[in-house]
């Protein structure tokens, strides 16, 4: 078996992702602006050794219903209905991993959660609202609770994908009651889709980093060849792979 070291360079934001062969004790990425016109900024993330594997079971927390500050039953009902629909994000696996026969693939919610953590641990970036990045990370795929994870291999055009997701988002916001929080979710989602803000650009890079980090973990844990997922970042990341016996 060959060991492989991969080094990724993000063209758009000078992200460097270093992966020593068959170990995560020193997985590291740095994130800084490319180009003189962009403010200097950096994100540093260090991942320690992977946690010990168990049976994969997680104890269920007590049933707690989070409701808006308003005590009206209609507000509480709409919040619960919205959250119940969002449960699908926890139970719907990411389609790309299913197509490659990955065992126990991550869910959509798993993917968004780690992106949220990336934003949480990131350094402050001039001109970028870190709290907004965290919010955007946990809602950018929220419409997939209804439409599912639509990938390029599904044969659905970008226009049709956007139409379906836009309708799903509108339904979810109405379900939530159409108030300020619903409007905030809709605005964050649209900003991400349109790549229309500095925060959207940062979160889109987090999306790609999370993808290749997850692919690396599946390669190491399950012996999969997921090179295509690394190559899918072409145009955003330059990849150099070093092999040894």
From TrEMBL:
Residues 108-212 form the HD domain. Residues 1-25 form the signal peptide. It holds the Pfam family HD_3. Its EC number is 3.1.3.89. Residues 43-76 are annotated as: Disordered. Its cofactor is Mn(2+); Co(2+). Residues 57-76 have a biased composition (Low complexity). One of its GO terms (molecular function) is 5'-deoxynucleotidase activity. It is an enzyme of class 3 (hydrolase). It catalyses: a 2'-deoxyribonucleoside 5'-phosphate + H2O = a 2'-deoxyribonucleoside + phosphate. InterPro entries: HD/PDEase_dom, HD_domain, YfbR/HDDC2. Keywords: Hydrolase, Metal-binding, Signal. Catalyzes the dephosphorylation of the nucleoside 5'-monophosphates deoxyadenosine monophosphate (dAMP), deoxycytidine monophosphate (dCMP), deoxyguanosine monophosphate (dGMP) and deoxythymidine monophosphate (dTMP). PANTHER family: 5'-DEOXYNUCLEOTIDASE HDDC2. Homodimer. Belongs to the HDDC2 family. This is 5'-deoxynucleotidase. It comes from Arabidopsis thaliana (Mouse-ear cress). The lineage of its organism: Eukaryota, Viridiplantae, Streptophyta, Embryophyta, Tracheophyta.
């Amino acid at each position: 078996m060959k060991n492989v070291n991969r080094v990724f360079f993000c063209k758009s934001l000078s992200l460097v992702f270093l992966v020593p062969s068959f170990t995560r004790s020193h997985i590291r990425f740095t994130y800084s602006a490319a180009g003189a016109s962009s403010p200097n900024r950096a994100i540093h993330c260090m991942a320690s050794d992977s946690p010990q594997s168990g049976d994969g079971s997680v104890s269920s927390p007590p049933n707690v219903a989070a409701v808006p500050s308003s005590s009206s039953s209609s507000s509480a009902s709409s919040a619960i209905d919205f959250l119940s629909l969002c449960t699908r994000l926890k139970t719907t696996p990411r389609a790309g991993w299913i197509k490659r026969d990955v065992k126990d693939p991550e869910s959509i919610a798993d993917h968004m959660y780690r992106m949220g953590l990336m934003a949480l641990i990131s350094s402050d970036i001039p001109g970028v609202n870190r709290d907004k990045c965290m919010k955007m990370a946990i809602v950018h795929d929220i419409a997939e609770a209804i439409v599912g994870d639509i990938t390029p291999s599904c044969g659905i055009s970008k226009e049709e994908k956007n139409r379906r997701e836009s309708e799903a988002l509108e339904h979810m916001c109405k379900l939530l009651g159409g108030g300020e929080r619903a409007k905030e979710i809709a605005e964050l989602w649209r900003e991400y889709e349109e790549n229309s803000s500095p925060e959207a650009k940062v979160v889109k890079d987090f999306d790609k980093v999370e993808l290749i980090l997850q692919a690396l973990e599946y390669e190491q844990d399950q012996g999969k060849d997921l090179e295509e997922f690394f190559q899918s970042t072409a145009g955003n990341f330059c990849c150099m792979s070093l092999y040894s016996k």
